Amino acid sequence: MSSSVTSPKRIRKYYAIEGLNSHHVTNNVIASQRLSSRLIKKFDIIGQFKHYNVVSVVNLQERGEHAYCGDGILEKSGFSYDPEEDLMKHKSMYNIVFRFEFLNFYQFNTIVMLSKTCQYQI
């Protein structure tokens, strides 16, 4: 492949939310890398969420998980962002946290509950 096809600038224009590795799963669902407080501020992620009518963030990160990856985690929240500071102060945002242990398998009922919760938010 030529470098013009794989260059980060060329790939970036296909992201659903600038600053996040993110893509539309459906018209109403965006899947992305985990948020971080730095990215939320640097790329005005909340402003973009509002612009695109994103009303919920479903967090599958376990508190304390991947402390040394990316921007790391915040001591206060145990996540890579602070839900109270970064999301909840915006009245139109919901932060839904499901404690999913990394690389684990889950019962069908758990996946159905997660799916129903996400569907309700859409």
Model description:
By secondary structure, this protein is α+β, with helices and mostly antiparallel strands. It has one domain. The chain is 34% helix and 11% strand. Strand 1 and strand 2 form a beta hairpin. The radius of gyration is 15 Å and the shape is globular. The N terminus is likely disordered.
Notable traits:
34% helix, 122 residues, two-stranded parallel sheet, disordered N terminus, alpha+beta, two-stranded antiparallel ribbon, globular, 6 helices, 4 strands
**Helical residue percent?**
25-40%
> What string, H for helix and E for strand, traces the elements in order?
HHEEHHEHEH
Number of helices: 6
Q: What is the number of E strands?
A: 4
Output the strand order for the largest sheet: 1-2
Describe, in short, the structure shown.
This protein has helices spanning 3-6, 8-12, 37-42, 45-51, 83-88, 108-121, and strands at 22-24, 30-32, 56-59, 94-97. It is of the alpha+beta class and 122 residues long.
Produce the secondary structure layout.
Layout: H1 3-6, H2 8-12, E1 22-24, E2 30-32, H3 37-42, H4 45-51, E3 56-59, H5 83-88, E4 94-97, H6 108-121
Parallel strand pairs: 3-4
Antiparallel strand pairs: 1-2
